[in-house]
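Collaboration report, partner site 2.

Our partner group contributed sequences for two proteins of shared interest, and the home lab folded both. The records are reproduced in the order in which they were received, starting with the first partner submission.
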Amino acid sequence: MGITRGCRKKELLLLKQLRGLKRVALAFSGGVDSNFLMAMAKQAGLEKFIAITVSSQFFTSQEKRFAKRLANSMGVVHICLDFDILANDNVTQNTPQRCYLCKTMIFSLIRKTAVQHGIENYIHAANTDDLGDYRPGLEAAKELGFVAPLVDAGFSKKEIRASSQELGLETWDLPSQSCLATRVPYYDRITREKLEMVGKGEVFLRSQGFEGVRLRCHGNVARIEMDPDAILILMDRNKRQTISKGLKSIGFDFVACDLDGYKTGNMNKF
């Protein structure tokens, strides 16, 4: 995945924008996009820069540890804030406004923390691909004064991966992440039990060699979404039986595979 001349220009534009902000707090998840933005902010030589991770029940413990390790490896000041998102009934009702409500609380917490550290500029790592999907959280970020430098510089996901590889970032080929709440259909109440089942289920599926997989929780039914090519591997009798037994041991009664495969935004149907 070679970097293009266009990516070089966008990197320079991104660095210029970041340097203009001077004192910056990054909403940091540890994913492909936020790690690239953190690396570029570090390269920009800002007057002050911190990365803030908000860890809720929608964020796995593995992701929390990974985010901390990434920030430490770059020598970036990292603050991790624990947040009980399930205490908010408006969020757990899981309406199409769930993401907006959740992001409003999370970004508010990040902004408050940034201000306490004498920082007045806040950034998040949305890219241009995000603009084509239903992402109410983007509106919450905008309302709270967050800017999206990757969008402003014109970076797509593919370009972020290419630039990340050029920079030697280990996240360049990391499968796309999304919060665990996206595994539960709208209007189906989100509970700790469902999130734990999904989290354990996806860890189990990855242990079986399936990356970039999503496990959707439809009541007592586990619906697996994965790359269509991987479905052929899943259909091997021994593998299929292993997956079924493993997911049922976690708490699901039925296990299904989505023949259409994984696609970003599959649950944005309401």
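Second partner submission, folded after the first:
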Amino acid sequence: MRRREFITLAGGTAAAWPLAVRAQQPVMPRIGVLLGFPEGDPEGESWRQALLEGLSKFGWKRDNNIRIDVRWGAGDPGRMQKLAKELVEMQPDLIQVSSTPATAAVLRETHTIPVVFLVSDPIGSGFIASLARPGGNATGFVNLEDSVAGKWLELLKEVAPQTSRVSILFNPKTAPQSAYYLKLLEATAPSLALELKAMQVSNAGEIERKSPTWRSDRMLALS
């Protein structure tokens, strides 16, 4: 599901708030936003701008008739947990999140404030009961259809046909959804005559240290 379609859900939720709530003065409806990106990151900024544009289409103008508090997690789970707590304490009407770690952080802090997410594996991550009936206080979109994982390997094989061994790099702290994709990659690998090796890393230094332990033709990073 595309990012702008996801933003539309947040805007539609705001548009559905009772007129009586919107008419209250001086209190304005409030949205908390926790982005997993560093502040100033181009992709993160595009998310923030898309949110503002999406809300504007429903008549919501920042600091005019709605308040929006944006926080930047910078890919740091510890920082995201602190920011999630900060946002929940503000008691917003809705919290929007853009990654699995950010969603997990927010849902650890609240079971009542509505949360709209965009993640890879909401069921496996324990955010919702099912796609048809999410339950709880969270809903949203899956950002990648599961068959995409197999396509990654197919494209790799097309670009480099002689590839026989691939290292899968991931940081379990910043990409806990990696286990979901690893299962899909492992299911596709035999049909492409590929041998996979999962390598957990937490920084660039670990990549340098672990790479020589298993010689691979290519590396695929999950983030």
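Feedback sent to the partner group on the second submission included the following. The longest strand covers residues 30-35. The chain has two domains: 3-142, 148-222.
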